[in-house]
Each structure stands twice: as C-alpha cells, then as structure tokens.
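Anyone up for a design puzzle?
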C-alpha cells in the first residue's frame, strides 16, 4: 500500500505470506495497522474494510485470532466500526473551513451569543472532542 508507512507492527503469529495474501483483500491494501498500546496490553488497531464480503468473515476472524494470540493476556478483540460513529475526512475539512471563515471573515461586533452558536454550527468542536 502506498498510504501505509514503510515499517509497521504485525502480530507475530501472522506469517508474512498470509500478510501479503490478505493485503489484497483490503481496500487500498490497507492492512490492519497497530496505532497505539496501553501498558495493560490493550491496543488500538486500525484497518480498512475488506473488499470481498464473502471472504470478509474468514479474513477478519484470522486476523483477530492472530491479534488475540499476540496479546499478553490473550484477550479477545473488541471491534468498533468507526465509519458509523466518526466524521469522515470531508466533514472534518468542511467544519475546519467553516471555522476559518467564522474566525477570519466574520466581524466580532455582533453579539457573543450569535458567534458562539455560529461556532457550534461549524461542528468543529464536536469533531475534535
């Protein structure tokens, strides 16, 4: 994948040949990417959707099993579809543009109440929260 870093962490129980094979199943070949960990062993792993819905369950299960086997406490994987609960990049860019317009182009001589409601309407604060 041209959008992934040159080096990244993968579960030790996932063989290189499996990793290469599975990468073709993900949109943009964006394999699961370890992004963050906690001292208790919890980790945040991001991944793109799997293209083939017929293979999705099998590939997803194999990767989740590899992550579980690599976890110090062998904890199960908790999955969350962030597409459903987070804004996409276009929504974030739109909110940022609205925020810039509000801060640069809007005169501040209007009442603060109107300015604060305009700020809220940009949704920028909601997104960065």
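Challenge accepted. My sequence:
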């Amino acid at each position: 994948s041209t959008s992934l870093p040159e080096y990244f962490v993968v579960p030790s129980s996932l063989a290189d040949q499996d990793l290469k094979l599975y990468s073709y199943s993900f949109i943009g070949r964006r394999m699961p990417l370890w992004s963050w960990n906690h001292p208790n062993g919890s980790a945040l792993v991001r991944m793109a959707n799997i293209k083939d819905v017929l293979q999705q369950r099998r590939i997803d299960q194999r990767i989740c099993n590899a992550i579980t086997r690599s976890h110090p406490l062998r904890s199960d994987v908790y999955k969350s579809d962030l597409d459903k609960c987070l804004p996409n990049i276009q929504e974030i860019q739109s909110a940022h543009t609205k925020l810039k317009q509000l801060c640069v182009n809007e005169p501040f001589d209007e009442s603060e109440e109107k300015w604060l409601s305009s700020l809220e309407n940009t949704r920028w604060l909601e997104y960065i929260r």
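A detail worth pointing out: The helical segments are 16-23, 53-70, 89-104, 112-122, 124-128.
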